[in-house]
Structures are given as structure tokens and as C-alpha cells.
């Protein structure tokens, strides 16, 4: 089936880099504006063979002008990840920087800010995710083992609501990509996994009555923004296609492995998705300043590996990750880099970063109770 053409205003021009089976799409800025009109059909792209040969495709939209001094959602996040990838020899160097702009505040949206470039840079971030969906779908039409996509973008998106920005988020990047997958590529059933430490209330609300988009969120119970209770399961035709699993403070690697096996896998198997999208938040790491869970770099390696395999089993390998939270630059960069290793089938290097001595006993009884309640409500 010939892919349809998509065009997004201010969508940046694309450049490809391939090294060790990673293909990168870079989104560039020019002067005060952005590269315009990325309008083409990927099945006519002369680099489609590189798409099918690659095992990871990633886009970078760092939003360097979207920055407020001392704010956790800072312009240092994406460059820290890229630097770690470069140090691990997983990519080539390419990064554009924009000059610092003035700051404005968005009232009533949590501690969310905007700069003079935020709107345009947010469009680029959303567009980066869309072109990754395009690329992964194009590759899946030519290969039984398409690459996994990862949008290294900011501002994040899973808190953004129809009324506007919220919780560091401006546009709902994953929600936009989900609709794009449906409307442009005819992928009817979209399965969204959100493992950020905070509930993805924006994505949750966007598809609360939609039976064709399954939203599954694990998050710290009681954390910002206070939504995502177990009994929030969808409404009307969408009842049963929203699954929220709030985890007690201190939940970590053991808890998440159990959740994946007993909740995520059976939910996805029953739903039978055409594509899997992931809100990949790294703020559940034990070192993160805004979270109260104790995931490790190894937890994220396992999640990345398992989700990749789940997509391979259920939907032809079509899977795209979207960066959400993660505010300790060291744990963020190490964890994303180890996620890339998982996508590539390489050995985890989490042991070089993780320190088991700082971990404490997980609340296994409370976690089991939460899992059993979810399984009962959703008949898993």
C-alpha cells in the first residue's frame, strides 16, 4: 500500500546518519525560523533501504530556546542524552543550538513555562514524532523486523490537555502521533504504554471514550497531577481501553517486571494493536529528584527490550518511543543509552551505573494487591 504524504507547518528538514545500524533523522533550525515543508512519500525515499536495514531510528528536537534557568525541564536534557549516545559510540555528532530567549509563564498549568521559541519548537517536537511513525511504518512494509523509533524531543507531552499546556508539556506528542497513525497510515488500533513516574493525564483524557486506542499507564500513586486511579478505565465505547496502575512509593525493578508480565503483556495481547507507542519517562529512576519510585537503569533496559519484543510479536515490530520526563541528567542519559542497547540487542551496561546499595526493599505486598485489583477490574 502506497504511503500517504504528510505535511506539518514548521516541520524540520530531515538528515540521515547511519552507524552501527542506527538511523537518525535530525531536525534543523535556520536562523530564527525552521526548515519548512517536509512533504513527501516515504516509499519513494531513496534511503528506504537504510530504513529497513537499521534497527533504531531516532529524531532529535532539543528545543534549545525553550529554557528557564534552574527549571528541571531544561535545555540540558536532550543534549545530555545525545552526548551519552556519542560517548557510547552509538551515533554521530550533530546538534544545533539556539540562543536564549526571554521567559513567559503559563498560569494554571503547573510549573510550565514558555519562551519566544516554544510554540515553533513544540511543533518541531511533535513533527519529529510523526516522521518517526512514518519511517517505522514504511520500514515495516518492507521488512518483518523494522527499526524501533525513539523521539528524543522536548517539551514533553503526556500532561498536555485540549485546553492548553500543563505539567511541563505543551503539545500531546504521543496523542498526536496516535491519531496520525490512524488517519494517515490506516493503523486502526493503537496501544500506548506510559511508564513515566507521573500519570499521563493528557493522553488519558484524549482517548477516554475511544475503543481503538488503549492507554496503559504505570505511575507513582498520588503523584502529580493526582489523576490515574485504578477505577479510571474509560467511558462509553472506550470503557475498558484505559488501564491505570498507580504504584506505591518505592516500587522498583521487581515490581515493574511483574507488572509487565501480568498486566502489560495480557492487555496488549487481548487488544491486538497495529502499532505500539511509548511515553518513555525516565523520572521513575531512583536518582531522579521529582520521583519516589526506585527504577534503575537496568529496569529501563528490560522495559525497552520487552516492549520491542512485544511489538514484534503483536504488530509487525511497529513501535515508537517518545521522551517524557527524566530530570537527573546522569540517570536520564545512562538509561536512554541502555534503552538503545536493548533495541540493538546489545548487552546492558547498567551495572556500571546502578548502585544496588542505595536501593531499599520494595513494597511487594502493596504492588501485588494493586496488580490483582487491576487484573480483576479488567478481567486479565
UniProtKB/TrEMBL annotation:
Cellular component terms (Gene Ontology): cytoplasm; histone deacetylase complex
Keyword Repressor: yes
Domain of life: Eukaryota
Gene3D superfamilies referenced in this protein's UniProt entry, alphabetically: Histone deacetylase domain
This protein's UniProt keywords: Chromatin regulator, Repressor
Keyword match Nucleus: no
UniProt-listed GO biological process terms: epigenetic regulation of gene expression
InterPro entries listed in its UniProt record: HDACs (IPR000286), His_deacetylse_dom (IPR023801), His_deacetylse_dom_sf (IPR037138), Ureohydrolase_dom_sf (IPR023696)
Cofactor needs: Zn(2+)
GO terms assigned for molecular function: histone deacetylase activity
All copies of domain Histone deacetylase, residue ranges: 66-341
Protein name per Swiss-Prot or TrEMBL: Histone deacetylase 14 isoform X2
Organism: Populus euphratica
Taxonomic lineage: Eukaryota, Viridiplantae, Streptophyta, Embryophyta, Tracheophyta
Gene encoding the protein: LOC105130385
Amino acid at each position: 500500500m502506497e504511503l500517504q504524504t504528510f505535511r506539518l507547518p514548521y516541520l524540520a528538514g530531515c538528515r540521515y546518519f547511519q552507524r552501527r545500524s542506527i538511523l537518525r533523522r535530525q531536525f534543523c533550525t535556520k536562523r530564527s525560523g525552521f526548515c519548512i515543508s517536509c512533504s513527501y512519500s516515504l516509499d519513494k525515499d531513496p534511503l528506504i533501504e537504510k530504513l529497513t536495514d537499521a534497527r533504531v531510528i531516532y529524531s532529535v528536537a532539543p528545543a534549545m530556546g525553550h529554557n528557564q534557568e534552574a527549571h528541571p525541564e531544561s535545555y540540558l536534557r536532550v543534549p545530555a542524552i545525545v552526548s551519552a549516545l556519542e560517548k557510547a559510540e552509538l551515533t554521530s555528532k550533530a546538534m544545533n543550538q539556539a540562543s536564549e530567549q526571554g521567559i513567559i509563564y503559563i498560569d494554571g498549568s503547573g510549573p510550565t513555562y514558555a519562551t519566544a521559541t516554544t510554540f515553533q519548537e513544540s511543533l518541531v517536537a511533535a513533527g519529529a514524532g510523526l516522521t518517526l511513525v512514518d519511517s517505522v511504518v514504511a520500514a515495516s512494509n518492507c521488512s518483518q523486523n523494522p527499526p524501533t523509533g525513539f523521539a528524543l524531543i522536548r517539551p514533553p507531552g503526556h500532561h498536555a490537555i485540549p485546553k492548553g499546556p500543563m505539567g511541563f508539556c505543551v503539545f500531546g506528542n504521543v496523542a498526536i502521533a496516535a491519531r496520525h497513525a490512524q488517519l494517515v497510515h490506516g493503523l486502526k488500533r493503537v496501544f500506548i504504554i506510559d511508564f513515566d513516574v507521573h500519570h499521563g493525564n493528557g493522553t488519558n483524557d484524549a482517548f477516554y471514550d475511544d475503543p481503538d486506542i488503549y492507554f496503559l499507564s504505570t505511575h507513582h500513586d498520588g503523584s502529580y497531577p493526582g489523576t490515574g486511579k485504578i477505577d479510571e478505565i474509560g467511558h462509553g465505547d472506550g470503557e475498558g481501553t484505559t488501564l491505570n496502575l498507580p504504584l506505591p512509593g518505592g516500587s522498583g525493578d521487581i515490581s515493574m517486571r511483574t507488572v509487565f508480565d501480568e498486566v502489560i503483556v495480557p492487555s496488549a495481547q487481548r487488544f491486538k494493536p497495529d502499532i505500539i507507542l511509548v511515553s518513555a519517562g525516565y523520572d521513575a529512576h531512583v536518582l531522579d529528584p521529582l520521583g519516589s519510585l526506585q527504577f534503575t537503569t537496568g529496569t529501563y533496559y528490560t522495559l525497552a527490550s520487552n516492549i520491542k519484543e512485544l511489538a514484534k510479536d503483536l504488530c509487525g515490530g511497529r513501535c515508537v518511543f517518545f521522551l517524557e520526563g527524566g530530570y537527573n541528567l546522569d540517570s536520564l542519559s545512562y538509561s536512554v543509552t541502555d534503552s538503545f542497547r536493548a533495541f540493538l540487542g546489545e548487552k546492558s551496561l547498567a551495572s556500571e551505573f546502578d548502585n544496588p546499595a542505595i536501593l531499599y526493599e520494595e513494597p511487594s505486598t502493596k504492588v501485588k494487591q494493586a496488580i490483582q485489583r487491576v487484573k480483576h477490574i479488567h478481567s486479565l
